[in-house]
Design goal:
Layout lengths: L31 E6 L5 E6 L1 E8 L2 E6 L9 E7 L9 E4 L9 E8 L4 E2 L4 E7 L2
Antiparallel strand pairs: 1-2, 1-9, 3-4, 4-7, 5-9, 6-7, 7-8
């Protein structure tokens, strides 16, 4: 792995850059993301700025950020993959019974048809700062 240290970043023409010209500082970049296994022992498969996943019970998880967001008003996109169990369409959403914070996003996975929580095979979460 290489490390780059610099006091000033320059364009190839020698002019200085502005913050939006530096992709890692651009607000359009994800501030955190994770792909995790929600069955058995919950485990992170791959992640950026997610320090851990807390298993809060059947179909209930907390995504914990390595570096907190600036506020709890961030944007999140959720995705889930489940084993074929023949049930209706599941939902993967922010947990309406727990508060979203700058350091944690609580999520649930359930089937609205029977109001039951289930562990899923794989979950994906992407966080963007507003």
């Amino acid at each position: 792995m290489s490390t780059i240290k610099a006091n000033t970043l320059l364009h190839s023409d020698g002019s200085t850059t502005t913050q939006p010209s530096i992709p890692a500082l651009d607000k359009r970049m994800a501030k955190a993301w994770v792909n995790f296994n929600g069955t058995g022992t919950v485990a992170i498969n791959s992640a950026y700025n997610v320090s851990s996943i807390t298993d809060n019970g059947l179909g209930q998880y907390s995504v914990n950020f390595g570096t907190a967001m600036t506020t709890a008003n961030y944007i999140f996109v959720l995705g889930a993959r489940d084993a074929n169990n023949g049930m209706s369409i599941p939902t993967f959403q922010a947990d309406p019974t727990r508060s979203i914070s700058a350091s944690t996003l609580p999520v649930i996975y359930n089937y609205p048809a029977n109001n039951q929580y289930y562990d899923g095979v794989a979950f994906c979460v992407v966080i963007m700062e507003a």
